[in-house]
Amino acid sequence: MDPELEAFIPFLPQVDLNDPLTARKHLAELAAARPTPDVAGLEVEDRVVPADPEVPVRIYRPHQAQGALVWMHGGGFVMGDLDTEHLWAARLADGSGAVVVSVGYRRAPEHPFPAALDDAYAVLAWTVEHAAELGVDPERIAVGGHSAGGNLAAAMALRARDEQGPPIRFQLLNQPGLDDRQQTWSARNFTDTPWMNHDTIAAMWRHYLGSQTATPYAAPTRATDLSGLPPAYVATAEFDPNRDEDIDYAVRLLQAGVPVELHQWAGTFHGSQAILSAEVSQRQIAELSAVLRRALAG
Questions:
Q1: Neighbouring C-beta atoms of residue 284, cutoff 10 Å
Q2: Which Gene3D superfamilies does the annotation name (predicted)?
């Protein structure tokens, strides 16, 4: 474990997704205690995307943006919202120079699959259709997310390919949860890792799937054909149950002819980039922005 991160582990709150309401409350309190992001260089606006039902979004517009990112927050499909994601969305927009459309998708277990994916996909279509209003090129729209949000981004890319839907320039997948089966080495053996462990991941999938059987749009690693997908950046954490499924997905993308940049961050755990004082966290956050900037460049 990175020593700067390890020092914080005794102070991290436990995540219990078996109690969604309490888990949401704890995440909201944690987010409220973080420093307020500097949005002086951004135009921030709350909007509602017309859909059934409507989807709340928060739009972060830097000056002279070239492209846009449809961004899905993490939280195991259960926690998180536009407010808890405010810091990260603002940092991405400021660091990358891209318009960031942060999606307030419906959460499980009240709204199991495919509610969150339907919400995110509706926002993707809206972003492409309103690119001129947002001041960006409709051919420079990326999708991305952290953890459960990374799952939604990968699923959106699969769905857009299969349905000849909105064009996606790039996938930004940060520690995504992609496989409901939990059969990889990291998923089986990381039973006491911080933030996310085997039991937490099991609860996440139970809430998200409900009584349904997983499909590739719910668990993208179940897709048998990964050809024709947008180029991807995949970031993994060493002590993360999702680690091995993410690495496997990146390799399968490569084998299908998809350009991939894969970064396995040594000494980190799931979501540890929230510990902003750690040097490795600062590098992780800066790299996400830099990768996105390059992907949406002319």
A1: 19
A2: alpha/beta hydrolase (3.40.50.1820)
Tell me the pLDDT of the chain averaged across its residues.
96
Task: From 242, 103, 215, select the one nearest 155 (Cα to Cα).
Answer: 215
Number of domains, the chain = 1
**Domain limits for position 113:** 3-295
Please name the residue that has the structure tokens 């990146």.
250
CA geometry: angle at 291 spanning 285 and 152, to 5°?
A: 80
228 closest CA partner among 138, 175, 163, 272:
163
What pLDDT score does 12 carry?
87
The token duo for 65 is 């943006």
Query: Which distant-in-sequence residues (6+ apart) come within 8 Å of 167 by Cβ?
Result: 128, 138, 139, 141, 160
pLDDT, tens only, 101-119: 999 999 999 999 999 999 9
For the entire predicted model, the pTM comes to 0.97
CA 207 to chain CA mean position, Å: 18
Cβ pair 55, 115 in contact under 8 A:
no
Tokens of 37: 């992001």
Q: Alpha-carbon distance 200 to 13, whole Å?
A: 13
| CATH number of the structural domain spanning residue 268 | 3.40.50.1820
Catalytic residues: 147, 240, 270
Position 202: which residue type? Answer: A
Q: What is the pLDDT of residues 19-63, one digit of tens each?
A: 999 999 999 998 998 888 888 899 999 999 999 999 999 999 999
| Cα 251 to Cα 249: distance, rounded to the nearest angstrom | 5
Q: Which amino acid is at 203?
A: A
Q: Which two tokens stand for residue 151?
A: 């799952």
Whole-angstrom Cα Rg for the chain: 17
CA distance to 165, 181, 197, 285, per residue, from 62 (Å): 27, 40, 36, 17
Tokens of 19: 């109690």
